[in-house]
Design brief:
Layout lengths: L1 H5 L5 E4 L15 H10 L4 E3 L8 H15 L3 E5 L15 H13 L3 E5 L15 H9 L4 E5 L6 H10 L3 E4 L6 H4 L1 H14 L5 E2 L9 H10 L4 H7 L4 H15 L26 E2 L1
Helix pairs in contact: 3-4, 6-8
Length: 280
């Protein structure tokens, strides 16, 4: 609560459960554990849940129970998670499609998918972004938020996002490059703006790997270098405002404070405390 809300500029945090049940006896970050803090601070958190299609019918029934109990608006999917002999799954698998249809039926419309860097012993190929293309076309009423923007497959992700209007990019893991590799980050954010557009990019802190405070502050102050702007453009205050919170607020029906929404094309100034950042 201190890291996010007292010093971290976050107004609303979004829990993204990741179970990793083969590695953690009680799960790495479960819906049940997240719900404890959600229930203690109901106005501060949005609680998403998860599913694993490899549990087939049992998993489908357990997912329905989670939705009934917690009424989530989104799920977090981890396609490289191990389960017995299986070292990953695809969104296009038979039971994955059944679970996505169930999401649609139950109104769980925000599908967050981890598609990014891998740590040992997980398989890099299990985070390939190609399966996003097919399901985004099939389920046009679902929103697919590709966390980590597909890194290291940024180009593949961009080519999918440009043709699928219901595909979004989450900046988890990408954000810290603003410090270690600022020109790389400038190219990354510039490519995302060109292909996906400013309305489909979402800030994410990857807390507790990194605290949101310094990421927010550096992003507010960040500008694409002048020698790159002819091709990549500039980061305007409105673009920063959308990325830091407005885009996520729209996905989750979070009230946007008066004067902070940018739908009317106005350009309110960004102050020393950025407006409405939503931490995931």
């Amino acid at each position: 609560m201190h890291d996010l809300f007292e010093i971290g500029y976050v107004d609303v945090g979004i829990f993204q459960p990741t179970y990793l049940s083969d590695f953690y006896v009680e799960g790495f970050n479960t819906t049940e554990r997240d719900a404890v803090l959600k229930e203690k601070h109901p106005d501060k958190f949005i609680l998403n849940t998860s599913f694993d299609p490899r549990y087939e019918q049992q998993g489908l029934e357990e997912f329905e129970e989670k939705v009934r109990r917690w009424n989530p608006k989104g799920v977090k999917l981890y396609t490289a998670e191990w389960k017995g002999d299986s070292k990953g799954w695809k969104l296009t698998d038979e039971w994955a499609l059944k679970h996505l249809q169930k999401c649609l039926d139950l109104g769980v419309t925000n599908i967050h998918i981890h598609k990014g860097p891998t740590i040992w012993p997980l398989n890099k190929d299990a985070f390939d972004v190609s399966d996003v293309d097919d399901v985004a076309t099939t389920f046009t009423d679902l929103k697919f938020i590709v966390e980590h923007v597909g890194l290291p497959r940024l180009e593949d992700f961009c080519w999918i996002a440009v043709q699928e209007p219901n595909v979004f990019g989450g900046l988890a893991v990408a954000m810290p490059f603003i410090y270690t590799r600022p020109r790389y980050f400038a190219n990354l954010i510039g490519e995302l703006l060109y292909w996906a557009g400013e309305d489909r990019i979402l800030f994410s802190s990857d807390y507790a790997l990194w605290q949101p405070k310094w990421l927010v502050e550096m992003f507010v102050d960040f500008q694409i270098p002048e020698d790159m702007q002819s091709e990549l453009g500039e980061l305007t205050p409105n673009i920063k405002r959308k990325i830091l919170g407005v885009n996520a607020a729209r996905l989750y029906d979070i009230p946007i404070p008066e004067g902070m929404d940018v739908a009317d094309g106005t350009t309110p100034e960004i102050t020393d405390k950025p407006p409405v950042p939503v931490g995931t």
